[in-house]
Amino acid sequence: MAAMSTTSMRLPDDLRERYDALARVTGQTRNDLIIAAMSAYIEREMREIALIQEGFDAIDRGEHSPLEDVVQRLAARGMLDRAALERDRAQASADRERARV
Fold first, then answer.
1. Which of 7, 27, 28, 83 could form a disulfide bond with 32, CB atoms 3.0-4.6 angstroms apart?
2. pLDDT digits (tens, 9 = 90+) for 50-95
3. What are the angstrom distances between the C-alpha of 10 and each of 17, 19, 20, 25, 73?
4. Which of 36, 39, 38, 50 is nearest to 79 (CA)?
5. How far apart are CA 23 and CA 35, in angstroms?
6. Which backbone phi and psi does 8 adopt, to 5 degrees?
């Protein structure tokens, strides 16, 4: 078994209630649930950071991709919500138009 450390955190009451309910219905300990959640979060964040670093390294080598290619790759990896991007683009365009007036 790997060495373990103890930590504590404050949870909003509603999250704690959902956390407790999930532990009850799955039969897992709260500790097991938080380890799984933290592991998944850390893995996802580390992958994203690695991809960002890959991009910086490619730029440093003079390699780059058209924006739409990048958007497609990120959407395919589940790292970008294309609908949200389009909403943001439309809002930014409307904001720029209002600023011109």
1. 28
2. 999 998 998 999 998 888 998 999 999 998 898 999 999 999 999 9
3. 13, 13, 14, 22, 37
4. 50
5. 12
6. -135, 160
